[in-house]
Amino acid sequence: MITRKQYAKEFKLDAISLVLEQGHTASEVSRSLEINANMLRS
């Protein structure tokens, strides 16, 4: 069974901030944080 990776709320907010407030693309942020870009979009 595969377990889902859990992220802290602060990590999620920081990642979203990079996209919405600092103008980076979801693809750039997902690559730098090594997470799936769909996670940022949803």
Automatic annotation (TrEMBL):
<dbReference type="GO" id="GO:0006313">
    <property type="term" value="P:DNA transposition"/>
</dbReference>
<protein>
    <submittedName>
        <fullName>Transposase</fullName>
    </submittedName>
</protein>
<dbReference type="InterPro" id="IPR002514">
    <property type="entry name" value="Transposase_8"/>
</dbReference>
<dbReference type="InterPro" id="IPR009057">
    <property type="entry name" value="Homeodomain-like_sf"/>
</dbReference>
<dbReference type="Pfam" id="PF01527">
    <property type="entry name" value="HTH_Tnp_1"/>
</dbReference>
<dbReference type="GO" id="GO:0003677">
    <property type="term" value="F:DNA binding"/>
</dbReference>
<dbReference type="GO" id="GO:0004803">
    <property type="term" value="F:transposase activity"/>
</dbReference>
